[in-house]
Amino acid sequence: MINYTVADYLIERLSELGASHLFHVPGNYTAQFLSRAQASGRLSCVGTINELEAGYAADAYARLKPIGVACVTYGVGSFSLYNALAGSYVERCPVVLINGSANADKAEALVKHGVLFAHAIDTLRTDESIFKPITCATAVIVDPADAPRQIDRVLSACFAQKKPVYLEVRDGVWLLPCAQPVQPLKVAEPDAPTAARLDAAAQAAAQRIRERVLESSHPILWGGEELQRLGLEGLFEELVAATGLKYTTTLMAKSLMGESSPNSPQQQRPEFLGVYDSKFAPPAVRQVVEGSDCIVALGTILADFYGDIVSKSHDSMILAAGGAVRVGREIFPGVDLSRLMRELVRLFRAKSLRKSPPDGADALGRSHLVMMGDAVADAAEGPGEMSWHDAFRVIDETVDPDTYVLADTTLGLFLAAETLIAKPKHFVAQTAWLSIGYAVGAATGVATLLESHEHALVLAGDGGFQMVAQSLATLVKLRKPVTLLVFDNALYAIEQYLVNHRYFAQDNPAPADFFCELDLDPSEPSGTTKRRWDYVRFAEALGAVGRLACSPAQLAEALTEARARRDGPTLIAARIASRALPKELVVSQPVALMGDAAETGHAPHDTPATLAIPAAGFN
Ligand SMILES: Cc1ncc(C[n+]2csc(CCOP(=O)(O)OP(=O)(O)O)c2C)c(N)n1
Ligand SMILES: [Mg+2]
Fold first, then answer.
1. Is the Cβ atom of 16 under 6 angstroms away from ligand 1?
2. Quick check: 17 and 159 in contact, CB under 8 A?
3. Which of 56, 261, 526, 578 maximizes the CB count within 10 A of its CB?
4. Which one, of 560, 617, 511, lies nearest residue 162 by Cα?
């Protein structure tokens, strides 16, 4: 009979923090933990095909629940998950990475005789040191007596800072006796003097924000992802109501509040301007947001998309994120976002504000379906192919309020921004780290949380899908109602757009032009164009249903059929013309996109825009 163990302690704390699943690939170093977790009935262990998928799944889970958990083995497993965890760090997703290492004898053999245990590189703490730069706390547990303290320290950092943590337990220690928790996990609450200081800082910043808003003519609110991570969506909604201001969101924080009007789901709610994703937003949305003389950005991670607006409206923008507030050039350090939001709601409720929105705001009401109409210039499609807008008109019509939409880094991401999401937190996208394939692995995490009437729709490019394609097998195993819609354009279109957008020009004589422009030897095989997969047979080989849609009618039929399936995933390949480009991107010069800084060209400010985002994170 085994009594209370180190494994039990960790399981108890994880479940106390709100995790009911963990995503893993087994390894003998963590085997005892996994069996204990499964037997506990508190943590359901979801086996994934590889560790990258486990990492993406845990990350997505952490966007919808208080924490996500991944459990892998040393080196060979953990390194495969590194990309995913880096994304969690950048996008502030509280993920607990549980790792196991070799037992004490093997550790001693390494130190004394240089004998490498399985997956060792050359020192005992390689994994911990490698994960340090992308976690907010780490621990290596070798002594069961110290386990409660270490586990509590690392988990409370994860929960409080909304960043990933690394927790390694030495094989042989998992089942050693351990003290039980005597009280709930204390999540680093500030002591009384610190709390008073934080309150005062929030009050001062809120006061200044209110003054600045009053001085302006057309202020708007810009909600960001930190509000979601900190569970402040309700306060944001209260602030919208208290100020009467119109609001936009970042692409990552899309669905911060339900976007459609409660009475008419096809209409945008009146306070919502649409997602502002800079140059990719519809022109009417851009005009309104960029026409504001006071953008109040709350909880916004300054991803690459936002370089221009932050730089252009530097002096008129209010930015509250990363534990600080900037009002124009004035910096308020040490401001906790939760306190600030409470204070703003209080101040704006006390006295009503009468401000008119920027010009054009009242005309906004529906997504690109209306704004673009049929006058879409991306119809480069031939027979049996669709344009991007063809596909999105169908997608928009089929997304219902019980559907989670997960959008990958594809040209389709920018159109997905326009799809109305009726319920909060029903849109998931990794728009700062931008690892292609993320949404495909993330589907595993979201799938575990689906209720019987719910459904998830993944929108992925073919390049992204192929990176994590085996995740489909996990969804088959889990029997989850997930639709994986792959934009089958046989192209890494975003990359093509960045390196030579002339490829997409209708009059461009030959794709080979691309090789010349890149100054590559034309006889070299290109990394950009590639052969098409047979997605229908691929799906069938993994036990899923596969459909090929070459027209809007076929896509509508396939999506409706997939939505009706309750016991497993459907893979739909939507044939998009390789040379099709959404109208928003059809320009003579490519817009700066994902690290392509060629077009930003603004003189640097003496006060860096990132000042409000100190490395320490929220606190
Ligand atoms: C893991 C990873 N590798 C490479 C890249 C660079 N990259 C950015 S977009 C892109 C192409 C995406 O192609 P696809 O998924 O087919 O979508 P499309 O652009 O065709 O819509 C690539 C390779 C990346 N962001 N992430
Ligand atoms: Mg593609």
1. no
2. yes
3. 56
4. 617
User: Please, are residues 44 and 19 in contact by the beta-carbon 8 Å criterion?
Assistant: no
3-state DSSP helix/strand/coil percent for the chain, to nearest 5?
Answer: 40, 15, 45
Nearest CA to ligand 1 atom 13: 492
What is the sign, positive or negative, of the torsion defined by CA atoms of 94, 69, 431, 358?
A: negative
Rounded CA-CA distance 468/80 in Å is: 12
Of 381, 85, 329, 386, give the one whose Cα is nearest residue 208.
329
| Rounded distance between C-alpha atoms, residue 103 and residue 173, angstroms | 8
Q: Cβ(275)–Cβ(251) under 8 Å?
A: yes
Q: Which of 446, 391, 398 is nearest to 415 (CA)?
A: 391
Rg of the Cα atoms in the chain: 25
Nearest ligand 1 atom, CA 460: 15
Question: Residue 31 is encoded by which pair of tokens?
Answer: 């085997």
Q: Which atom of ligand 1 is nearest to the CA of 491?
A: 20
Supply 618's token pair. Answer: 């929220």
Q: Is the CB of 559 under 6 A from ligand 1?
A: no
Q: How far apart are CA 256 and CA 196, in angstroms?
A: 29
CB of 582 sitting under 6 A from ligand 1: no
Ligand 1 neighbourhood includes 430 CB (under 6 angstroms):
no
The conformational region for residue 434 under phi > 0 = left, psi -120 to 50 = alpha, else beta, is left
Q: How far is the CA of 437 from the centre of ligand 1 (A)?
A: 8
Phi-psi region of 521 (alpha: psi -120 to 50; beta: other; left: phi over 0): beta
What are the pLDDT digits (tens) for 439-460?
999 999 999 999 999 999 999 9
Residue 516 structure tokens: 């010349």
Q: 338 C-alpha to center of ligand 1: Å?
A: 35
> How far is it, in rounded angstroms, from Cα 324 to Cα 309?
19
Range in 459-463, 588-592, 602-606 with the lowest mean pLDDT: 602-606
Structure tokens at 285: 């949305």
- Whole-number Cα distances in Å, 420 to 122, 273, 464: 52, 12, 23
Burial class from Cβ neighbours inside 10 Å (0-12, 13-18, 19+) for residue 531 reads exposed
Which of 409, 489, 575 to mutate for ligand 1's pocket (most ligand atoms within 8 Å of CB)? 409
For the chain, what is the mean pLDDT? 88
Query: How many Cα atoms within 13 Å fall on the side-chain side of residue 473?
Result: 11
119: nearest Cα among 107, 131, 129, 108: 107
Q: What 3-state DSSP class applies to 19? A: coil
3-state secondary structure of 321: strand
Distance of alpha carbon 605 from alpha carbon 120, whole angstroms: 47
How many angstroms separate the alpha carbon of residue 533 from the centre of ligand 2? 12
Express each pLDDT in 148-199 by its tens digit: 999 999 999 999 999 999 999 999 999 999 999 999 998 867 888 899 999 9
Whether the CB of 441 sits within 6 Å of ligand 1 = no
270 alpha carbon to ligand 1 midpoint, in Å? 35
Q: 10-14, 534-538, 593-597: which has the minimum mean pLDDT?
A: 593-597
pLDDT at 527: 47
- Phi, psi (5° rounding) for residue 486? -105, 125
Check pocket membership of 205 for ligand 1, CB cut-off 6 A: no
Please write the tens of the pLDDT for every residue from 487-513: 998 888 888 887 777 777 766 555 544
Determine the pLDDT at residue 510.
53
